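S1.2 Input.
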Amino acid sequence: MKRIVEPLVKWYRENRRELPWRNIDDPYRIWVSEIMLQQTRVEAVKPFYARFLEALPTVSHLANVEEDKLLKLWEGLGYYNRVRNMQKAAQQIMVEYNGEFPREYEKLRKLTGIGNYTAGAISSFAFGIPKPAVDGNVLRVISRITGSYDDIMKASTKTKVEEQLSEIIPIDAACDFNQGLIELGAIVCVPNGAPKCDICPLAHLCYAKQHGVQGELPVKSKAKARKIEKRTVFIFKDGENVAIRKRPSRGLLAGLYELPNIEGELSQEEALAYSRTIGLAPLRIKPLGEAKHIFSHVEWQMIGYSIRVDELEHSCTENMIFIHPDEVEKNYPIPAAFENYVKHVNVKIGQEKFEE
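S1.3 Output.
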């Protein structure tokens, strides 16, 4: 393990990608990037990162922004509890540290939503503190180098790797060492497809390469099968306005806005009947086809209908907001689960806004 340090740091300094959150020592900006990069591709994060920091350039701005605006800025990144926890942590920093990011690993670790990886990343990237930052990329790289068949989904495996890296992380190059491991896993020792051993600076030290077991490592136990939920989604139209509603403050997609929907897969006749039960007077219906959205533990299998109604706002018994699609796109955070349906009223959400 000690022998990986020098070639890894040298390789990283010569081959690192130029990314907006690199070559900076601002812990706030590093923190934002690290939370955004969890379960999101690098290229997808870039426009979100720029937009978020333009709107909320400091910890103070994040601590004090209204929730709907915060969620709108996060729209399309998913896992919305991440940004809620960021705001809680920002509020902690304002109260406990007078708005200054704490420089100690242990203090960072006590902030809401910051675990070992994020604390290690901020510590080493911003302050040069020799603490490891072990994510999925690092677990894969170290498993292959050491020939470890430990299940990387287990907390004990991550703890073991953190301990191994703590012993070798260089005091004078903590940032480049951690970034190097992450970068190597992202572009060389890749998760899908064959690793690019021919350009790997650590190939001569790698157990998996020497024994031809790259495809066997890392060992990763399968997640539990997702629960399947059938849902029917409605676009209720009254003139130019459409109906949206706010989800409950707890649970899946908490506090976000959505197109009205119910459990079950309704036929056209059943969809019209449901419309009448909530006080609407449907004039005509148009099927919008099927769509699917996968959450971490649940899969929504959806069918949608566009239903034009008469005097929607005055007769509906449900708690809905009746609003022009332009206003929805501008101010209301809509989760990506409804992406295939909101496009029927010319509403773009999340990444779509950046793909002109």
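S1.4 Remarks. The chain has two domains: 2-216, 227-354.
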